[in-house]
Specification:
- The strands form two sheets. An eleven-stranded mixed β-sheet has the order 1-9-18-17-16-15-14-13-10-11-12, with helices on both faces. Strands 4-3-2-5-6-7-8 form a seven-stranded parallel β-sheet, sandwiched between helices.
- It contains 19 helices and 18 strands.
- It is α/β, with parallel strands linked by helices.
- The protein folds into two domains: about 210 residues, Rossmann fold, CATH 3.40.50; about 270 residues, UDP-N-acetylmuramoyl-L-alanine:D-glutamate ligase.
- The longest helix is centred in the C-terminal third of the chain and has 20 residues.
- The termini are close together.
- It binds ligand NAX, adenosine-5'-diphosphate (ADP) and potassium ion (K).
- Ligand NAX binds next to helix 1, helix 2 and helix 3.
- Keywords: ATP-binding, Isomerase, Kinase, Lyase, Metal-binding, Multifunctional enzyme, NAD, NADP, Nucleotide-binding, Potassium, Transferase.
- It catalyses: (6R)-NADHX = (6S)-NADHX; (6S)-NADPHX + ADP = AMP + phosphate + NADPH + H(+); (6S)-NADHX + ADP = AMP + phosphate + NADH + H(+); (6R)-NADPHX = (6S)-NADPHX.
Length: about 475
């Protein structure tokens, strides 16, 4: 399990650790780790040009001490001092090692830029001249290494409020910060390298976690010798309409590939006919009236892809949500639920799987605001609606009350194409039917779906059916890791 922490959590742990160590020890450890990563990135330190962007706090101090170490190894290091003050002892050590102070031109001629403007002490958008220096670093040809977090990225949330450094590498001290795992911040961090400064024993329960392949392998059910299709779990899929048939085909495909014992599809005439011809394995029921009464027993329902949003769809949704098994609410069913919240009044679990636009309708926040603050909005929606929320997008976020948010970054932007969300709904539903709770089903499904996207894309466009077809290979890969 990967873990990450807010700035406040890190600060508290640092205070506890610092109380037991001679002053300055942690910064020395941080700077040594930072210099080592810079040296590896440079390949040859002697004769290379390094520019330090130095803010007024300890983040700047880290950069100066690391700059001193690089200068002693023969690098030509130039520091741009951005703050109204500068870390005093760091600057002394830096100048003593042969480092120089320079203007912004240093950034343009550097092989490597070290971003030590701000770290976990930052508040709000970067102010000038920090913002201008961040833009200069982004425009320069040099490799950029961020200290602790890319300046301009909020360490606790991943928010980016204005200019922000786009790093190729982020050297983070003590423990990963939440903002390095969640977009838009994660996209600015590049490869994250952790420097162990001894914080481990002082860290609290994490703010967010991310499953590794091995974690997913541990959670995934495997058929036992005595398994049969019913014991493995039957997933019901209420999807598609005479207008939209493809969504049902894709959701059923995702569910079949993710290990359901059986997939039962219910819907109108056209989607049922499509599902029947695509997937002879699925058991289909054409609904004569908008109700699932009399359709066989299932262990979980997927509700919504392509279902439509009219009166017929509303009745189907009410009927599915009146059942006593977990229900995944996706796509059109999210629209129905946002119009009529009373549909969610039930005792069995609910997993909702919106993208930012759908979440915006559900909780009444703006779409851009949700994209900017994915964590807080997913958390707020989970609390407000009393459900598990899987928020789709460039980093998928799974939130449930009283549990750390799980984030997933296995995906690829090639997944941003029509129908991949329907596949995700099918995969998640199959895992629910196999007995995983909403939180585990959603986070395992997001991991496998992202990985399947990478396998299917392999650097070129994919279509949603390819993603479903790659789910078994994704499952094999997580088992190899486990
Ligand atoms: N506390 C510790 O023991 C350790 C701290 N470390 C480093 O120290 C950093 C935290 O240092 P600080 O608490 O001094 O804080 P920072 O260095 O992150 O930021 C504080 C400074 O930035 C300015 N500032 C804040 N927001 C700004 C904005 N939006 N625009 C422009 N300027 C802004 C403040 O006025 C202040 O001068 C960590 O990120 C890490 O790099 C590491 O050396 C490890 C040990
Ligand atoms: N930029 C991106 N990077 C990674 N994954 C993405 C990105 N954009 C979308 N996705 C993923 O692609 C899928 C799209 O789902 P959705 O928006 O419901 O599309 P549709 O309704 O067409 O199926 C989700 O799993 C989402 O997380
Ligand atoms: K920084």
């Amino acid at each position: 399990m990967r873990t990450a922490y807010t700035a406040d959590q890190i600060r508290a742990a640092e205070h506890a650790l610092m109380a037991r160590l001679p002053e300055g020890t942690l910064m020395q450890r941080a700077a040594a780790g930072l210099a080592a990563v810079c040296a590896t990135a440079l390949g040859r330190v002697y004769g290379s040009r390094v520019a330090l962007l130095v803010g007024g706090g300890d983040n700047g101090g880290d950069a100066l001490y690391a700059g001193a170490l690089l200068a002693r190894r023969g690098a030509r290091v130039e520091a741009v001092l951005a703050g109204s003050r500068t870390h005093e002892r760091g600057l002394e050590a830096y100048l003593l090692a042969g480092g120089r102070v320079a203007g912004v031109m240093a950034v343009e001629r550097a092989d490597l830029v070290v971003d030590g403007l701000v770290g976990i002490g930052a508040t709000g958008a970067l102010r000038e001249p920090y913002a201008e220096l961040a833009r200069a670093a982004n425009a320069a040809p040099a490799l950029t290494v961020a200290v602790d977090v890319p300046s301009g990225v909020d360490a606790s949330s991943g928010r980016v409020a204005g200019a922000a450094v786009e790093a190729q590498i982020t050297v983070t001290m003590g423990a990963p910060k939440t903002g390095l795992l969640v977009d838009p911040g994660a996209a600015r961090a590049g490869a994250v390298e952790l420097v162990d400064i001894g914080l481990g024993p002082y860290l609290p329960a994490p703010d967010v976690t991310a499953l590794t392949g091995a974690d997913v392998a541990d959670l995934l059910p495997r058929p036992a010798t005595e398994s049969d299709k019913y014991r493995r779990g039957v997933v019901g899929i209420a999807a598609g309409s005479d207008l939209y048939t493809g969504a049902a085909v894709l959701a059923v495909g995702g569910a079949l590939r993710a290990g359901a014992g059986m997939v039962r599809h219910v819907g109108q005439h056209a989607p049922v006919a499509q599902v029947r011809s695509h997937w002879p394995e699925a058991v289909v029921t054409e609904l004569e009236r908008p109700s699932i009464d009399g359709v066989g027993r299932v262990q979980a329902w997927v509700l919504g892809p392509g279902l439509g949003t009219g009166a017929w769809a509303h009745e189907v949704a009410a009927s599915v949500l009146a059942s006593d098994v977990p229900v995944l609410v996706d796509a059109d069913a999210l629209t129905l639920v946002s119009r009529d919240r009373s549909l969610l009044r039930r005792t069995a679990p609910v997993l909702v799987t919106p993208h930012a636009g759908e979440l915006s309708r559900l909780i009444g926040a703006g779409r851009a605001e949700i994209e900017a603050g994915r964590l807080e909005h997913a958390r707020a929606a989970a609390a407000e609606l009393g459900v598990t929320v899987l928020l789709k997008g460039s980093t998928t976020v799974v939130a449930e009350a009283d549990r750390p948010v799980r984030v997933n970054a296995t995906g690829t932007s090639w997944l941003a194409t029509g129908g991949t969300g329907d596949v995700l709904a099918g995969v998640s539903g199959a895992l629910l039917a196999q007995g995983l709770d909403c939180y585990d089903a959603a986070s395992c499904a997001a991991h496998l779906h992202g990985l399947a996207g990478r396998i299917a894309a392999d650097g070129a466009p994919l279509n949603a059916a390819d993603v479903a077809a790659a789910i078994p290979e994704a499952i094999r890969r997580v088992h190899d890791e486990g």
